[in-house]
Write a structure and sequence with these properties.
With about 270 residues, this protein is α+β, with helices and mostly antiparallel strands. Helices cover about 40% and strands about 20% of the residues. The chain has one domain (about 1-265). The protein has helices spanning about 1-15, 35-55, 110-115, 130-140, 145-150, 170-180, 190-200, 210-220, 230-235, 245-255; strands at about 20-25, 60-65, 80-85, 90-100, 105-110, 120-130, 205-210, 240, 260-265. The strands form 2 sheets. Strands 1, 2, 3, 4, 5, 6 and 9 form a 7-stranded antiparallel sheet that branches. It has a two-stranded antiparallel sheet with strand order 7-8. Strand 3 and strand 4 (about 90-100) form a beta hairpin. The two termini are about 20 Å apart. The model is unreliable at about 1-20 (pLDDT under 50).
Length: about 270
């Protein structure tokens, strides 16, 4: 039994050695996972998989607590899609990630274990399961070129929700959701996705960023910009941002059969 447990932990550790140098909702500081981190990440991944399998879902959203955002009234820092029947393997997570120390992002596919091995602030996950119809549409979109069309490689952690200049990780997920829920063939671009989201009453989160924090971000962070936000918002230091909370709240409203569940390690 101990030997089997060791092999599982070792396999998961080796998997982390090939993980991409990208981050979302957490620091870019390199910190190799400890054996305890690996055990916790694997445990949370297994619990998440069990919940997904019991639900009979084929596709869901996962929100993780990569950083402590309580000062901004937020809990979850980053979200991705988890797809049971991904062409590359079962229960893979598809999400947009910022390439460390750069202003670019890319869409990655990775296993559930990797998703929880990013030195999270808390070993907790929000599992959001849309209606069967939305799951099927999302699976089709993720396998199509439209998911790439809706991705903007120019990354900004505080991207303005109503601009196509930049995009943050959760914004890509939201705009793909819009394409899935809107009438067929209605959305083929980011501009169309944002127009539809406005029409449906999507409300982004509002984040207060003091002047000194803004100055520090400009000087030291390649992945934070403020120039896409309205001038009045910049003066007030009040920024509209696509967050996990705002995405999930919108999804529950436009797709009433959506369910949510929080999983934490005991």
């Amino acid at each position: 039994m101990r030997h089997a447990h060791f092999l599982v932990v070792l396999c998961l550790f080796l998997m982390t050695l090939t993980s991409s140098p990208a981050r979302a909702g957490r620091s870019c500081e390199e910190k190799p996972p400890t054996p305890v981190d690996i055990q916790k990440g694997l445990h949370l991944a297994l619990k998440t998989k069990q919940v997904l399998m019991q639900s009979d879902a084929t596709l869901a959203l996962l929100g993780r607590v990569g950083s402590d955002l309580s000062a901004y009234g937020l809990r979850y820092s980053h979200a991705g899609f988890v797809w049971r029947d991904h062409p590359k393997g079962q229960w893979l997570v598809i999400h947009a990630l910022n390439r460390c120390a750069t202003a670019t992002s890319a869409v990655f596919d990775e296993g559930l274990g990797n998703f929880f091995l990013d030195d999270p602030f808390a070993y907790e996950v929000l599992v959001v399961i849309p209606s069967r119809e939305t799951q099927e549409k999302l699976a089709w979109l993720l396998a199509s070129t439209l998911s790439e069309q809706l991705h903007q490689a120019t990354y900004n952690m505080l991207a303005y929700p109503w601009s196509t200049r930049y995009q943050n990780s959760n914004q890509w997920l939201l705009e793909l959701l819009a394409a899935a829920i809107a009438p067929a063939a209605h959305i083929n671009s980011r501009t169309q996705a944002q127009q539809w989201l406005r029409q449906q009453g999507y409300r982004p989160s509002e984040v207060k960023v003091p002047a000194l924090q803004r100055l520090g971000a400009r000087l030291f962070s390649a992945n934070i910009q403020f120039d896409d936000h309205p001038f009045a918002d910049r003066i007030a230091g009040q920024y509209q941002v696509v967050t996990v909370e705002s995405v999930v709240g919108f999804l529950q409203r436009v797709d009433p059969h959506t369910t949510r569940q929080v999983i934490r390690l005991d």
